[in-house]
Amino acid sequence: MFRIIHKDSRTRARLGVLSTPHGTIQTPSYVIVATHAEVKCLKPSDIKKTKTQIVICNTYHLWDSALASRGGASRISFVHKRLGANIPIMTDSGGFQVFSLGFGQENRIGKILNPVDNRLAKSIIHRGRNVKITEKGVCFMINGEKRFLGPELSIKIQEKLGADIIFAFDECTSPLDDFDYNKKALERTHRWAKISLKCKVKSEKHAPYGNEVSRSGLNGKHQQLFGIVQGGRYKSLRIKSAKFIGSLPFDGIGIGGSFGKDEMVKTLKWIVPHLPEEKPRHLLGIGKVEDIFNAVEQGIDLFDCVIPTREARHGRIWTAKDHYDIRKRKYANKNSSLETGCKCPACRSGITRARLYKLFKDNGKKKQKAQRYATIHNVWFFNNLLEQIRKSIKNNTFIQFKKRFLNQHNNK
Ligand SMILES: [Zn+2]
Predict the structure, then answer these.
(1) Which of 98, 193, 344, 359 has the most crowded CB, counting CB atoms within 10 A?
(2) 335 and 288 both lie in a single domain
(3) In angstroms, what is the span from residue 124 Cα to ligand 1's centroid?
(4) Same domain, 81 and 183
(5) pLDDT tens-digit map of 181-209
């Protein structure tokens, strides 16, 4: 169940509370990535200490172990057991990884299209040899093995994983796909959205759902299913998708797909006005500082990104002003904390730049320690930023806070 508790007077930003079987999430919120149902480099007991409210695990990577697990009499779900922290968890549908095999891995294209990719665009052929899309789903090759994933199986796996929030299976197009391809893919995604809902309902025999009682009327005590808006870089498709997915009885809305660089705000302005106001909105795979502010301003409640965790593992430390590489020689003798005044558990325990520099130089156990401290700091930094954003929405000072923060932040 999602409740909006305050709306910013000047923008679409809103404060909300999302209830799940494993607790509530104050929104807007960062969703920390826990690919294999663990936040890399953190101990389970670190997770809550970094102000993490919710994590997202990867269905594609947990697929085999989930289906192999018996479940048994345990009341704890597969992902909660593995994470070892009693907080809300999401799983993605697995679609993004499967489609990445086709366009991402082979062509080195991510979610955001860089100018350099544009130059390559003409020489790249759609989808790789590894991926074949049919009405039922996607056949793909991985490590010489033929596999298949479609809407029914994705829901089945996600139910087995047992997260609080799961996603419908959708087709992610490449930023290089043209209008005609995106149109076809979108129609397929919409058919898959209906199938995903149908499968979920079938398995929730006792759950009242239908025209009279919406799934969100279940008080957040059930596993929630979010639909996904696609449509690539095309306004008419994005609006069509927002209206269609918004009209279905999903518990929340995910916004997926790739945008050209600097196209995020434009895309959100097309989509958000057509989404149901009362449902939570998750922008998938976005999480840089400036993008966070812009997404919140456009009415986004949740977003996930690997930046806080992945960059920490490589020694990149985030601060309100910038980010820096702690492995550089100039930090070898700096006895200040990772960020002046930082209240994260690592900085409060007295970790200095010099100490972290030294720990990162080690190749063994000490490096693991370094990565843990860096992860604690970065995850706390992003979660704390979101806490400040929530405060500013509450006080109707979001726009002032955004300007002030971004003015002093050099790495957007
Ligand atoms: Zn810190």
Answers:
(1) 98
(2) no
(3) 43
(4) yes
(5) 999 999 999 999 999 999 998 777 544 43
